[in-house]
Each structure stands twice: as C-alpha cells, then as structure tokens.
Design brief:
- The protein is of the alpha+beta class.
- It is built from 10 helices and 15 strands.
- The protein has 3 domains: 82 residues, Arc Repressor Mutant, subunit A (Orthogonal Bundle), CATH 1.10.10; 94 residues, D-Maltodextrin-Binding Protein, domain 2; 105 residues, 3-Layer(aba) Sandwich (D-Maltodextrin-Binding Protein, domain 2).
- The strands form 5 sheets. A 5-stranded mixed β-sheet has the order 4-3-5-15-6, with helices on one face. Strands 7, 12, 13 and 14 form a 4-stranded antiparallel β-sheet that branches. The protein has a two-stranded antiparallel ribbon with strand order 1-2.
- A hairpin with a 4-residue loop joins strand 1 and strand 2.
- The longest helix has 29 residues.
- The two termini are 58 Å apart.
C-alpha cells in the first residue's frame, strides 16, 4: 500500500523572524527589515512559539518584550543562527570563486614529471586554492575518499567519469637495458618473450597485468613471466634500467632513458597506442569553481604535455 509522506517542519522555521523582532523589539520594524508584512512576521513567531511550547514575547499594545523563555531561546539561537549564516556565506564563496581545498588522487609516477610544474603555476595563478596531492597507485573511490578529482591512465578511468585528457595518446613499449641485452638475443616477435625475464606489474585489484600488443591490427594480451613484480611503473622503470629484465611502460616515461642510451626499445612494430593520462571526476555533480579553474589551467598548459 502506498504511504503518504510529509516534509517535517524545520526546526529553524521562524527563527530569523524571532531574532529580528527581538533585535528591534517591534514586529513592524522586523517586517520592514525582512521585506514581509507584519502579519507574516506575527504568524511565523506564533508557529515557532507553538513548536517550542512557550511564549517567547510579552506583547502589549505599546511594546514588545522577551519572556524568560524568549531570553533563554535568544541566548542560544542568536549565535547558532549567526554561525549558520556564516556557513552559508563560506559555502556560497566556494560555489562562486576558486577557493578552498582541492584534493587530487594521482599515481606516484605522475607527480614529478607532470604535476609538479602544473601545480606550481596553478598555485601562483590561484592563491586562494590549497592543493592536496595524495600519491597512490590504487584506484580510489573519489566521492567516498573525499577527492575532487583523480589522475590516471585513460584506460583505467571508469565510464561513468568525466575525463579530461592531460596528454595525447602514446605507445606502450617494451624496453631493456644494454646490460640486460649483453649476451642475449633481442626479441623480434612477441612469442620470443618466453625466453626473456619480464618485469611484471601487480594492479591494485591484486591481479598481475598482462602485456598488451598490436599484432596485425588486432589487440592481443600476453601473460609473461620473470623474477620481479612491482606495484608501480617507477619501480619497474628502475628495475629495467638496472638490467633485471624487460619492462613494458608508457613511452613518455622511458623517453629520457632511450635518449641517453640507458634503455633500448624492442618489439617496436607491436607497440600498442593507449589513451593518455586523464584528469577525471564524477559527472553527476556540479563542478566547483576550484576544480573548474584547475581544469581550465590544465588545458591552457597542454602545449607540451608530458607524462
């Protein structure tokens, strides 16, 4: 059977009218201050008194005074109401201009290369916004953990999120150090990886990530094996440079190693192109000015995007 529901009368109904009358000791002046009729003020106070269960004013034909209950109510209600008004002003400010705390969840690898220059310029441009970076490789629930936005590889962003590209798409490439290849034959086909030590990455779900390739226009995934498992790309990169094994990593992350000769790319024809790094946030809620300012700042700095 369908039930009927009514909205419970708010505990604050009539409080503003009461405070105005108490301040002016006049229903007429309170009405003028609040822009309503004296009868509306009188009705609001009467309903409040009924809800409280006591007369709050002593009324005569010439004056309005507070009863003992009214004095007690005023002493508690006035500072509480002022706090509510102040809270509303703070919230209104957060909704109208970039200010407050901007919390971002990001992978550790992104912080020194992509975020540090962005954050430095953003903080200079928006001094009223405090930026908090939580560097973690785990995919967190933004709403539950209290984050305004996150940064991840585009392929790991849920479909119900709004994604803003921070970098263009890039290749996922296999690299190894000269020391690793010393005395070893470089792989030429993906099947050759069976003969190599491959560095693996354990995802936040606990599963080991497969290596992805593009073979004759089709996307394939391969389970590799090796002596080392990491939980983030930076650790895998360091292990690859030290010659522990081959690693499959985003191309921008290994660009410096390739340039200096610390790393060598192999299986180049099979490297897949993956979505770049994205800023993402829940699309079901209004974007606060602090986040909108950060998004606009990011877009203005995308001339030379890097991971």
């Amino acid at each position: 059977m369908k039930q009927n529901f009514t909205v419970r009368q708010g505990a604050l109904d009539g409080v503003e009218a009461f405070l105005s009358v108490a301040r002016h000791r006049s229903f007429r002046r309170a009405a003028a201050e609040l822009g309503v009729t004296p009868s509306a003020i009188s009705q609001a106070v009467r309903v409040l008194e009924e809800r409280v269960g006591a007369a709050l004013f002593i009324r005569t034909t010439r004056s309005v005074g507070l009863s003992e209950a009214g004095e007690q109510f005023l002493s508690r209600a006035k500072p509480a109401f002022e706090e509510l008004v102040a809270a509303s002003e703070v919230a209104r400010g957060l909704g109208q201009r970039p200010t407050g705390l901007l919390r971002l969840s990001v992978p550790r690898a992104v912080v020194p290369i992509l975020l540090e220059p962005l954050i430095a310029s953003f903080c200079q441009a928006y001094p009223d916004v405090e930026v908090e970076i939580a560097a973690s490789n785990e995919l967190v629930d933004l709403a539950t953990e209290g984050f305004d936005a996150g940064i991840r590889l585009g392929q790991f962003v849920d479909v119900d999120m709004v994604a803003v590209p921070l970098t263009p798409p890039f290749r996922l490439i296999v690299v190894g150090s000269p020391a690793y290849f010393a005395g070893r034959r470089r792989p030429e086909q993906t099947d050759d990886l069976r003969e190599h030590a491959c560095l693996r990455w354990r995802k936040s779900s606990g599963a080991l990530a497969l290596w992805s390739f593009n073979q004759e226009g089709a996307a394939i995934e391969i389970a590799v094996s090796g002596p080392f498992i990491a939980h983030d790309f930076l650790t895998m990169l360091g292990a690859a440079v030290e010659g522990i094994g081959l690693a499959q990593l985003p191309e921008p992350m290994v660009a410096e190693g390739l340039r200096t000769g610390k790393l060598i790319e192999v299986l180049k024809p099979f490297a897949p192109v993956i979505p770049g790094v994205c800023l993402y946030y829940p699309g079901r809620r209004q974007i606060m000015p602090k986040l909108r300012a950060f998004i606009d700042h990011v877009k203005s700095r995308q001339a030379e995007p890097r991971l």
